[in-house]
Amino acid sequence: MSTGGSGEARMSGEDALIARLFEPIARHPGALGLKDDAALLAVPPGHELVLTKDALVAGVHFFADDAPGSVARKALRVNLSDLAAKGARPLGILLAIAIPADMSSAALEAFATGLGEDASDYGAPLLGGDTVRTDGPLTISITAVGAVPTGSMVKRASAPAGQAIVVTGTIGDAALGLALRLAPDRPGFKALAPDERAFLADRYLHPRPRLALAGALRRCASAAMDVSDGLVGDLAKMLAASGVGGEIEAARVPLSVAARAAIAAEPELMVTALTGGDDYEILAVMADEQLDTFAATATASGIGTAVIGRTFAGEGLMVRDALGAPLPVGQGSFSHF
Amino acid sequence: MSTGGSGEARMSGEDALIARLFEPIARHPGALGLKDDAALLAVPPGHELVLTKDALVAGVHFFADDAPGSVARKALRVNLSDLAAKGARPLGILLAIAIPADMSSAALEAFATGLGEDASDYGAPLLGGDTVRTDGPLTISITAVGAVPTGSMVKRASAPAGQAIVVTGTIGDAALGLALRLAPDRPGFKALAPDERAFLADRYLHPRPRLALAGALRRCASAAMDVSDGLVGDLAKMLAASGVGGEIEAARVPLSVAARAAIAAEPELMVTALTGGDDYEILAVMADEQLDTFAATATASGIGTAVIGRTFAGEGLMVRDALGAPLPVGQGSFSHF
């Protein structure tokens, strides 16, 4: 972790902090013990780099009172989810963390522990980064470096007409988990059993990057992205970028038992599930003849897949209800700008 | 620029902002128009990656009223300085920017313009990143991706005993520029002509990454780092990491005309120059027989070099004054932790 400039957290204090917390999780030789200006990384022959960088701010992307270990895991996983969607495998990560003055050593340690466990579990070693102080909220930026065999990155803007629209896992759990946290007394959530509430809350806190599907996506998908800003909005983006139209049936969107129970008790939560963010599932478009192979690979990794619609020559996204009528889902996503 | 998760700045508003400000400076084909989840980058054959990531926070690493274009340039240049010190050439950058609600569109545009000009000038195209909102100060993290011929990265911990300690450019200007900004009425600064004050102020705002020396460092240097946290402190770190001792003569540390004038009027500013941060010059250790080649290459690029001391078998760093007496410079750097 290099330190740069005036007012930087540095020298003995920062060095000690870094050494204690982050060096143990930076065992990759290219991390150089976090003691150099930069990290060194060999790229496997015949491979290209896939690079992504997401930032998370306390009070915006997570709750200030979320467990620091969960925050670290989420910050890492949202980046790994981008790599998975592109068919890439992780090579390593860089972390920048801006630490508020009131963040305790214990909280920092929990953050580092969570990050270290995930970095190990997902094969994404910490290579370097920067730790600085801030007068503002805890702010985390992770850069994930991945690799794909040259020419095989799965793009977003390459969805052809006449192919199947596929999603992995279940959709809406995280958005419902967030809604539950904000308003636990809504009828949809009061109808849930405690373990169902815990499941939704966990899905908001802990995305599950679908790295196990990276190879299958490279082989089977014409286009893919991860669902981070809501299924409907993200699919609309992918279709627009690809210059095709699409149609999905809401009834075919895979829902968890908990999500189904919440929606049964409060039907308007269906719109939350379809348009809310933080799913971190894969949304892919693929030819019909690839569906069985993709589903079989996913199943072997314990990941469900569902065909939810088709692309067509044209433009726009139509979401239909079980009777075939257009379902009003607003603009499908939400903007702070 | 991918967008990830609930509360993210996203969809139409963010997309429009990104498109207007950042897409024009992301012309590298691997940036995919900032419209995919990740960027794609080919690494030149026979090369390894050099990766660095520095974060800057308003009120900590720069003044909240610094011109946004200057802030962008500094954020980029401190990262490129790390690449230069490692002998790497830039391949591209990723940017994460957390934008306070009160940052105007004009300020954002100035930020993007400064970043774009520098990215172009230094051959470090914007590949991707993330724009998010924050309730706190403007926070910027840049990841710089560079490349070196395999096996040739110049490390920090590889300084042998019995070699020359070399610095580029002039030392202390940025630290004096910061001191000038904080206390313009100090005798050392009142003694300066207006253009000398402007020079120091500019050196604080606009580091000059020594990318032109990357090749010469690979060929000539045994070890190198960029001077970001103060010459004395950074040299002490390099020596300790390398397991050798060193001695420098303060009188041989290259000073600008403005720095010399300020120190002449207020001698204690010499300690500021030797221990203050933000130089972003190169500190290198090299064999005596490499000195001429290195100096000639630097001169050809308009960059001065100076031998300021030697390494020796042992430990610690001794700073001597012109008479050979040890100069008290404290711990050589400053920590917020």
TrEMBL record, chains A, B:
| CDD domains found in the cross-reference section | ThiL (cd02194)
Organism's domain of life?
Answer: Bacteria
What pathway is it annotated to?
Cofactor biosynthesis; thiamine diphosphate biosynthesis; thiamine diphosphate from thiamine phosphate: step 1/1
Q: Which of this chain's residues are annotated to bind Mg(2+) 5?
A: D229
PurM-like N-terminal domain sequence ranges = 36-148
Chain positions recorded as substrate binding sites = H61, D278, F334
**Reactions that this protein is recorded to catalyse:** thiamine phosphate + ATP = thiamine diphosphate + ADP
Kindly state which keywords UniProt assigns to this record, in alphabetical order: ATP-binding, Kinase, Magnesium, Metal-binding, Nucleotide-binding, Thiamine biosynthesis, Transferase
Ligand binding (Mg(2+) 2): D54, D82
Amino-acid biosynthesis as a keyword of this entry, yes or no, is no
Q: Where is the PurM-like C-terminal domain?
A: 161-317
What are the binding positions for Mg(2+) 1 in this chain? D54, D130
Q: Which InterPro entries match?
A: PurM-like_C_dom, PurM-like_C_sf, PurM-like_N, PurM-like_N_sf, ThiL-like
EC number of the protein: 2.7.4.16
Which positions are annotated as binding ATP? Answer: G129, D130, R156, S228
Q: Name one GO biological process term.
A: thiamine biosynthetic process
- The positions annotated for binding Mg(2+) 4 are D37, T52, D82
Q: Which Pfam families match?
A: AIRS, AIRS_C
Q: Where does Mg(2+) 3 bind?
A: D37, D82, D226
**Main EC class the enzyme belongs to:** transferase
Entry's Gene Ontology molecular function annotations: ATP binding; magnesium ion binding; thiamine-phosphate kinase activity
Briefly state the protein's biological role.
Answer: Catalyzes the ATP-dependent phosphorylation of thiamine-monophosphate (TMP) to form thiamine-pyrophosphate (TPP), the active form of vitamin B1.
The miscellaneous remark of the record is: Reaction mechanism of ThiL seems to utilize a direct, inline transfer of the gamma-phosphate of ATP to TMP rather than a phosphorylated enzyme intermediate.
Q: Which family does it belong to?
A: Belongs to the thiamine-monophosphate kinase family.
This protein's name: Thiamine-monophosphate kinase
Gene of this entry? thiL
